[in-house]
Records
---
Amino acid sequence: MSKLTLISTIYSLEPVIICITRLSPSKIILLSEEGAPDKKVQSEEMIEKTFKNALVVEKKYTSVYDTVRVAKDVAELIEQEHAEATR
C-alpha cells in the first residue's frame, strides 16, 4: 500500500478526524499559524496526542489568511513529500 500524507489546515477537530478516518494517511501535516486562537491550538494538540503513536504528525507554520502563501506552502510540502516518496 502506498503512503498517503494528509496536509490540512485545522480550526475544529471534527473535520480533520473525519478525513483521517476515511483516508487513513500514514502522515499528517497540520498547517498552523503563530499566535493561533486557543480553540485551534487545543485541536492541534488533541490531534497530536490522539494519533502520535499511530501516525507521523507534523506542524508547519504559514499565514492561513493569505491564500497565495498557503497555496505556495502546500505546493512546497507536496514537492517535499513526493521527493521523500521517490527515494
---
Amino acid sequence: MTPIWRARAAYTFASLLVVGGATVAIAPQASAGGDGNKVHNCFGRYYNTDWDQRCSGSGEGYAGTYVSEAKCSLEPDNEESHYRGKGSKATYNGHDCDWSVTGVQTWFYQ
C-alpha cells in the first residue's frame, strides 16, 4: 500500500465519519404522532417511539380495566393494562418501541 493510497483512504474514511455524524446531529426530535381510538375518554397517544395511555376531559367515564396496545414497527407490539376508577386522569407511560409506533388501540373491560 503506497503512502498516497493510505492518505486517500484515511481522507475518505474521515469524510464518511463527518457525514455520518452530521446525519445523527440533525435527526428529528420526537413529536406528537397522533391519538388512538377513545374509549370512555381514554386513549393512547403516540409519538415517534414513545406512547402513553391517558384520559381527557372529565376523566375516564367508567371504572374498569383499560388496555392499550401500541403497534410497533419491526418488533412485537407493546401493551399496558391499568385499572382506573371513575374520573381518573392518570397518564401511564407505555413501554417504548425500538423503531417506531404506528398507532395505539384501546379496549375497556369491566
---
Amino acid sequence: MSVRELAPYEGVISAVWTPRNVQTGHDSTSGAVTVLEIGTPYWEIEYEIDCIDRETFDKWKMFLLRRQGRAITFITWPILRPRPRDESVTSDAGIDLDSISEANSTITVSGLAASQPIAKGDFFSYRTAANGYWIGTATEAATADGSGDATITVWPRPRAAHATVRELTRIRPVGEFRLIGEPRMPEEVGNYSIRFSARQVIV
C-alpha cells in the first residue's frame, strides 16, 4: 500500500475544491461579529467520475480500495485547473520558494519571468518542513518584478517550508488528502460511475 500515491484523473467530470475554515464566533444584532479560529483551514474535494469502460472503472476502484478507508493518504492536483491561467507557463524549472509568512498569508517566490502575471485562482504547492504537501491558491493578482520575484497572497495560510526542497510547483500542484466516508462505486450495465469525497491532510 502506497502512502501519497498519486490519484488517477481519467473520467473525472467534476472535482469541487471547497475551502473550509475552522471557526467559532458570536454574532450580535448590531451586526458586530467575533470570530475565533479553532483549527487550521483546509480543502475538501468532491469527486464525480464517469468511467468510459470497465478498465478505467477498475483503475479507480482499486486505487480507492488501496486507501483502506481513511488509513492511507493520497496526493492529487486540481484536475480542472492543471496549470496557471498564464498560457506562457510551460515549466516549473527554476521556480523556488524564497519565504512564507503565516501571519500575512503570503509566499514569496523567485525565478519567474520578469513582469509575469499571477492570476487570482492560480494554484501552487511545495513541500513543508514536516515533508508534507502544502497546496494553496492566489487570492489576489500579483506581478513579478524585473528580477522575477513576486509576493503572492494565498489561501490557506502557508506552512513552514522544507529546509532543502524549495521548488514551487504551478503545473499540476499536489496536496495530500484522506477519504471521507466510503466511496460510492455502483457497477451497472453501461454505467461505471464513482463518487467520493476527501479532506486535506495538513502536516
